[in-house]
User: Fold this.
Amino acid sequence: MSVMGPVPEDVFFIDFGKAAIVREGSDVTVVALALMVHKTLAACETLAAEGISVELIDPRTVAPLDVDTLLRSVAKTGRLLIVDEDFAHCGISAEIAAQLADRGFDDLDAPIRRLNGKPSPTPYSPTLEAAVVPNVEAIANAIRSLHAE
Assistant:
C-alpha cells in the first residue's frame, strides 16, 4: 500500500510529543502507527456503515509519547486497540498498552487489545507481505471483536 498526498512547500513541523486525533469517535479508541493509520482509516469507513464509531489516534512521536491524549480518548470510549506493523514482543504497542493500563485502568470497559505483524522479517513479495502485516480486514475484525466485548 502506497500513500500519496499533498506535501507542504514551506518548512513544516509537527508538534513534537503531541498526538493527532485523525478521526473522532465514541465506541472504540484505536492507536495506530505509521502506515497502519491509513489502513485503520479505511477500516473505520467500513465500520461507520455498521454503526461502530472509532476514534483513531496517530501518536506521531513515541518518545515522548502523548499519553494524555490517549487517556482522554480511552476515558471517552472505554476500549483500546493498538495497531502496529511491528511484532508485539517488546514493541511500542507493548509500551502504549502498559502506559494506558497503568494510568487509565479504571476507564477501560474491556481488556486492551493489540494487533501486530507476525514475528518475522517483512518479506519483499506483496503476497507474503500481506500474510505478515495487518490489513484493513484484520483491523476491522479486531475492532468489531473489541466493540462486542
